[in-house]
Design brief:
Layout: H1 6-20, H2 26-33, E1 35-41, H3 45-59, E2 62-68, H4 70-78, E3 85-87, H5 91-99, E4 103-111, E5 114-119, H6 132-135, E6 139-142, H7 147-158, H8 162-165, E7 169-172, H9 175-183, E8 189-193, H10 194-199, E9 203-208, E10 218-224, H11 229-237, H12 241-249, E11 253-254
Parallel strand pairs: 1-2, 1-3, 6-7, 6-8
Antiparallel strand pairs: 3-10, 4-10, 4-11, 5-8, 5-9
Helix pairs in contact: 3-12, 4-5
Family: Belongs to the bacterial solute-binding protein ModA family.
Subunit structure: The complex is composed of two ATP-binding proteins (ModC), two transmembrane proteins (ModB) and a solute-binding protein (ModA).
Pfam family, one: SBP_bac_11
Amino acid sequence: MISDARPAIIGALLLTVLASAGCPSPRDQAKSAQTITVLAAASLTNAIQEAADAWSHRSGVQVRISFGPSNALAQQILSGAPADVYLSANERWADALAAEDHIQQRVALLSNRLTWIAPLENQAGIADPSEIAKKAQRIALAGENVPAGIYADQSLRTSGIYELLADRIVRGADVRTTLAYVERGEVDAGVVYATDAAISDRVIVLGELDPTSYDPIIYPAVLLTGASPEAAGFFTFLQSSEAREIFARHHFVALPTTAGEKHDAGRP
C-alpha cells in the first residue's frame, strides 16, 4: 500500500511559509534569549548603557546591567552573585576579586578626573574652589569606601584642607547620589567625576581638583571566572574603537589596551 504523503508535504509547506514570514527559528530564539550580566560603577551608567545597546544590536545578546558603588558590587561578586563582567571605578576592588580568584581577564579601560561643582543657583556665591572652605556650609562627597570618595579624600588630605571641611561633609552612597545632592541644592558644593558634571545641566563646574593630589583614576574592566563566551565578546567589544568613541562622547579618557589581555596573576 502506498502511504498518503500529503500531510508531510503540507507540513513542509507550512514550515516554509512560516520561515518566509519572518518567524524565528529555534536557533534564532535561543540566540535572542541569551543574556549576560554586567556589574558596573555608577559613574559609568550612561556610557556603558550606550555601549551595551550597541553591542546587543550587533550580537543579538541581551546585556543585563546593575549599576552601583564599585565596592558594593565587588562584595556581591565575592558573596557569590552571578555576573560575567565587572567594571570598577578603581583598581582596589578589582584587586580584591583577583585575590579570591574571580578574575579571568582584566584590562585598564578608562580614566577620569575629579571636579568641584555647585548647584546651578549657587546661593553660597562660590566663584572658584579657593572659596569653598570659606563659603560652603555643606559639602557632598561619595562614601569613604566608594572610589570617588576615596579619591576625593586623598585630594583634600593632600591639599591639607580635609580636617577643616570634615564636619561639613555629607556622604553619598555613590557618585551619582553625590551629584544629586548638589543638583537639588541640598549642599553648597561637591566633588564628582568630570564625566558626571558634564551630564548635568543643574550644576556649575567650579574647577578641577589637582590631579597630582590623588591616585590616577583607573577603571578596570574584568571578565569574571566562569563567564560565557558571549560575555567574552562584550569584554572585547569594550576595548574596540567603536566603544572608545562612545566613551569619548561621555567625556571619559580611553586608555590604551590590548583586547583580551590576560590578567597578571602576580598583580597585587
